[in-house]
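User: I'm putting together notes for a lab meeting next week and I want to include a structural view of one of the chains we've been expressing. I don't have a solved structure, so I'd like a prediction I can at least talk through. The sequence is below, exactly as it appears in our construct file.
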Amino acid sequence: MLTIILLLIASYLLGAIPFGLWIGKIFFKKNLHDYGSGNTGTTNTFRILGVKAGISVFAFDLLKGTLATLLPLFFHINGVSPLIFGLLAVIGHTFSIFDRFKGGKAVATSAGVILGFSPLFLIYLLVVFIIVLWLFSMISLSSVIGAVFALVGLINFINLVMTNIVTRRHEFATMQSIGMTNRQLRKMMISESFSYVLLAGIVGTLVAATLGMTLLRAFVENGPTSMMMTFQITLLPALIMLILFLALAFIVPVVALRLFNNRSVVERLRVNE
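Assistant: Thanks for the context. Below is the predicted structure for the 273-residue chain, given as structure tokens.
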């Protein structure tokens, strides 16, 4: 227990190291609190101290989040999620004890936490961000968040359809034993997929519109200007995702049925899952 407590404190102290502030004072004779947004994180460092300093601060802030997240692995700690240690590093970066409890927005440190906990998920987020940035030529908070949730929903949809078919193999075999053809089975599953897409699309659009016009708009318009984000309503991402989901609503059931429903009716009836 004592080891866990000490490592949690170490995670906070690690995250609290203000690399941007120290690099600015030591190498550039500048206090980042006196320039730009006043933050000591990566964004303000890039803006005030230049690219080299910005890259250095980004790397250090990223690595301290990763290192804090990996501390339980290094010390063979079980029973406590590594994300707790990473969260303390993020808190340390935002409210640094070495900088009168000031700090940055912890974007790089949070990315480091994700890198330590799930590198593949970090790659996924980076791909989403780059695609959105390329499509819209701007860092739009609403677009980035919308794209992330849309792609998460896409993965969930594929998983839902595949799992649905696997768990209902005995049911499908029973229906086919009394006369349902493969073509009718495919048509039924495609209809269910289309219904799911349309229902999720309606509910998701209503929720996204409500949150976007209230909480998200207030955050973007009243938040720090250094975030360089804009609020806008655009239908293009929604239309792209709708077309993609509708196409998958047809393709996924067909492919899944061929993969998981290829045994004979008698064999599937014998396996009651």
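A couple of points you could mention at the meeting. The two ends are 43 Å apart (CA to CA). The chain has two domains: 2-117, 141-270.

User: Perfect, that's what I needed.
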